[in-house]
Design brief:
Main location: membrane
Keywords: ATP synthesis, CF(0), Chloroplast, Coiled coil, Hydrogen ion transport, Ion transport, Membrane, Plastid, Thylakoid, Transmembrane, Transmembrane helix, Transport
Order of helices and strands: HHH
Radius of gyration: 67 Å
Helix content: over 70%
Structural class: mainly alpha
Low-confidence stretches: 7-14
Pfam families: ATP-synt_B
Membrane topology: Single-pass membrane protein
Organism: Pimpinella purpurea
Strand content: under 5%
Largest sheet: none
Shape: rod-shaped
Length: 181
């Protein structure tokens, strides 16, 4: 380390102009060379480095601006999507409510239709029962009439002889003839 400090101290003592030689102190010569190279780089590379940094700055600013525009577009699309979502949710709720009311309406219509059908079936049943009762009554009447007629004919046949029978027939025919005239 002493050589490094000695080289800085010896920089103040330049050798006389008549002596020219090589400085064998590597650290001292490297520092001088590095400072010269850095000075040249700063002097000549300042414009290039400045241009590179300006270009980089512009690209970053453009990227930020584009990102802001994209963010604004994304926010706008998000708001549109939220609006559409709310609209679709409202429509879904409306369809759900309409669907429930439609189901209730159809249920009531179905119940009313079944009720009417049951009433019609009850009426048909009652008419069929009345018809069958009337038919049964008519059949009983016919049998009673036939039995009564057969009984009366049997009684008349046993009680009446031919002459009495012919007289009764003639009297009935005469009464029918008088009614028709």
């Amino acid at each position: 380390m002493k050589n490094v400090t000695d080289s800085f101290v010896s920089l103040g003592h330049w050798p006389s102009a008549g002596s020219f030689g090589f400085n064998t102190d590597i650290l001292a010569t490297n520092l001088i060379n590095l400072s010269v190279v850095l000075g040249v780089l700063v002097f000549f590379g300042k414009g290039v480095l400045s241009d590179l940094l300006d270009n980089r700055k512009q690209r970053i600013l453009n990227t930020i601006r584009n990102s802001e525009e994209l963010r604004g577009g994304a926010v706008e699309q998000l708001e549109k999507a939220r609006t559409r979502l709310r609209k679709v949710e409202m429509e879904a709720d409306q369809f759900r409510v309409n669907g429930y009311s439609e189901i209730e309406r159809e249920k009531l219509n179905f119940i009313n239709s079944i009720s009417r059908t049951l009433k019609q079936l009850e009426n048909y049943k009652n008419e069929t029962i009345r018809f069958e009762q009337q038919r049964a009554i008519n059949q009983v009447r016919q049998r009673v009439f036939q039995q009564a007629l057969q009984g009366a004919l049997g009684t008349l046949s046993s009680c009446l002889n031919n002459e009495l029978h012919l007289r009764t027939i003639r009297a009935n025919i005469g009464m029918l003839g008088a009614i028709t005239d």
